[in-house]
Amino acid sequence: MRIGEIAAMVGVSTRAVRHYHHQGLLPEPQRRANGYRHYGLRDAIVLARIRRLTELGLSLDEVRDALADDGGRELREILVDLDRELAEQEQRIRDRRARLGLLIERAERGELDADSAVSPGTAELLAALNTTEPASPMAVLERELFALMDTTGGEQRDQALAVVLPAIEDPALRARGHELQRRLDELAEAAPDDPRVAPLAEELADSIPAEVSALIGDDDADNSFSTALFDSVGPARAEVLRRAIRLLAQRPRDEGDLR
């Protein structure tokens, strides 16, 4: 058989056959006097094995190991690993479909927005924040920052959510948050040396749970993300946030000094 004939019989492309030769999976057959490769029955058997194994999802390196293992022990281990990987993929697909189902339901209720495709915990938080009034500029920014943290926060996101979600349910804490947002809104056009800045920074820092402030480092008021945040809110509000972050960064040390 020529290469086109064996490829058609097994159901692969001639390019695949040549690639298997190059990878050492299929031995190069003898060539006839006219220079054409001549494939026999054994070549077809091996090529069929390669096709079956690759269709199961084995990589070419794994196929090579499986073909070299006459006892089948290596192949069994490969298949067990592959089965576990597929089970994990299935679970991820089920999780994604569950999230898509919730988003479709929200879309049908007219509740879908650009930040809807966040993790379940963040979605719960944003839903709670969306029920708060008034929807001030700082409240909108707060929700946008939580949505951003959902993508960039990693482990810190989960730690913060574990603290913030229960706090949102406390009416007193929600009222305090509304008041702080209102006072921040009032500083939209103010200068950074406005006398309202310092006391508001202290109150804002005091409103942050210790578990959240423990995630803030000494340089968080000066890193590139903080700089971008400060640039987006105006001079006075930026100064409030800068001072509050520095107070929060000092809090663990201050508490440690008291012990």
Automatic annotation (TrEMBL):
Keywords: Coiled coil, DNA-binding
Boundaries of every HTH merR-type domain copy: 1-69
A GO term for molecular function: DNA-binding transcription factor activity
Coiled-coil ranges from the UniProt annotation: 72-99
Top-rank lineage group of the source organism: Bacteria
Family matches, as CDD domains: HTH_MerR-like
UniProt-recorded name of the protein: DNA-binding transcriptional MerR regulator
